[in-house]
Amino acid sequence: MTKTRIIETNQGIQGELNVTVYDQMMKRLRDKGWMETSQIIKSGIDKGLALEVGPGPGYLGLEWLKKTSNTQLMALDVSPDMIQLAEKNAQEYGLYQRVSYVLGNALSMPFEDEMYDAVFSSGSLHEWEEPQKVFNEINRVLKPGGLYFIGDLRRDMNLLLRWFLIWSTKPKEIIPGLITSIQASYTLKEIIDILQESQLQPTSVKKDPIGLSVIGRKVK
């Protein structure tokens, strides 16, 4: 039986120690090739101006920029500490001219209607206070025909896979945060139910051994 969802945080990751440890984990995922960059590109998000929701230290979006041509990225994060780190990482990538980081809450995005060719996010869905409202905001800022990809963990992953994921995670200081993220993540059914009440249609919701993805195109 799947355990009841436990809300984690709506403030993002803040504080020098937390940010440093999280950065180390995400850098390792990048170096191992375990980020969702290829899935995002395979979904058709490979051109134009994209919005990333919850970029954290920025590696996912920076890898996306690195692997695509003639693209620009705007990234929205609720944590000022993460934005500062992401800006530093963008400088190191040499991609600072193609990306801008904005402080704000995805519940009320500080962007104009129909501004983006695509929206993507990985690992932040479980932190959204009201995911239905965020889905509505994604729909609002997308151009007609724009694509979206939202990936995250899922709470009902196999118990053995869950423990393997925890055991293999480094640095070990991040493990308590990983556990609370899993506990705050959604099941496939929960996300389908939320999406059905949102304006973000049509949508394909898929699951893999440890996570789920929400993929679609805004109606023209």
TrEMBL record:
Residues 51-150 form the Methyltransferase type domain. The keyword rRNA-binding does not apply. GO terms for molecular function: demethylrebeccamycin--D-glucose O-methyltransferase activity; S-adenosylmethionine-dependent methyltransferase activity. One of its GO terms (biological process) is methylation. It comes from the Bacteria. InterPro entries: Methyltransf_11 (IPR013216), SAM-dependent_MTases_sf (IPR029063). Its EC number is 2.1.1.164. The keyword Transferase applies. Keywords: Methyltransferase, Transferase. It holds the Pfam family Methyltransf_11. This is Demethylrebeccamycin-D-glucose O-methyltransferase. The gene is rebM.
